Amino acid sequence: xxxxxxxxxxxxxxxxxxxxxxRTWIVDSKIEQPTALALDLINKYVYWVDxxxxxxxxxxxxxxxxxxxxKGRQVRxxxxxxxxxxxxxxxxxxxxxxxxxxxxxxTDVQFLARLDNAKEIRVYHKxxxxxxxxxxxxxxxxxxxxxxxxxxLLSSNYKARTCRCRTGFVLGSDGRSCK
Length: 179
Description:
The chain is built from no helices and 13 strands. The chain is mainly beta. The protein has a 4-stranded antiparallel beta sheet with strand order 4-5-6-7, with no helix packed on it. A 4-stranded antiparallel beta sheet has the order 8-9-10-11, with no helix packed on it. Strands 1-2-3 form a 3-stranded antiparallel beta sheet, with no helix packed on it. InterPro entries: 6-blade_b-propeller_TolB-like (IPR011042), Cueball_EGF_LRP_Nidogen (IPR050778), LDLR_classB_rpt (IPR000033).
């Protein structure tokens, strides 16, 4: 799945398949300007920052079990968000600081560092990734992902895929080759 925020005409958090199909709103109320977004891949939760409401909130992949992690002056001007183990890590663009907040006990907030021009944060660790199973976009014996000549996108599940072409090319009638 692909998860994303939108604060155009109607602010929302959405998800869709990697090929853009099955687009679904998972949060569309009590939300104003959702910006940074992070996933807990293990427990299947979506965290986001709302810079208008000064909140960090969480919801499960289906849009249920929503609650606020932290709210108020302490989390103003946030622009980056990452989740790892018991903590969320946030970039404050006003004072260029990195904060660590216990996602289960929001009173545990720690200043970690100050960085010039920090806008985003990511955690890279083996435990932050789920195990990868074989999928429809694996490279075939000819070196083509999922048998697609240009781009392979996972579809509704890991066994289904959609082929797409780079700009200027058109997908052939076989649904795999680009011309």
